[in-house]
Hints:
alpha/beta, five-stranded mixed β-sheet, 8 helices
Amino acid sequence: MHGTRTPLRVWFWAAYLMATHHPGISAVQLKRQLGIARYDTAWLILHKLRRAMVAPEREPLTGAVEVDDFYVGGIEEGRRGGRKSDSTKAIVAAAVELRGKGSGRLRLSVIPDLSAASLCGFVTEVVDAGVAVHTDGWQSYGWLSQLGYEHRSSSQRQAPAGHWLLPRVHRSISNLKAWLHGTHRDVSREHLQVYLDEFVFRHNRRRTPMAAFQTLLRLGAQRPPTSYRQITQHAA
């Protein structure tokens, strides 16, 4: 908010809509709803708020956790599903806590590849040591047991007919893709991580929207200013 010509009232409304509106809000919708003159202004407001959505003191995931990886991007002609080393799409790792039949906290991160270094590095960054980690049979996850985790690996063939092997993390991935396509239509690879951060922020506070709004204002007030140049030069 520092040094901008946008009134605080607009910033607060934008933070409220971003934190509490169920499907989220795009820059086009924000511009229209708040009467903002320029699309670039609405876009910048949302991007600044997204950069305040990761609490520096957040705790690692605990209890049992499901972990998986997936692709984000457009349709690649002539390609089937599954992991492909030559895919041009962005690769994202996901981890979600098991809370009975439901899901607890979520973490999402863009990773460079599907190697053990990338996938296990993601797990060690977001999951507490000694936790039971459920994955599919991808070979790169095999190092988790050597890193102090209780690794539980299974294949889709072991799942009951009509059921996902890792139902909670797959539900989160499906909801993320529907949100990206339905609310934002298209997200550039350069800015994908901050959209993932927004989805995680909203998912983890989905039952307390007003608390989410208050948390976003608190985090935004604590974060140093981010300029338009800093945001756009990352995508250059």
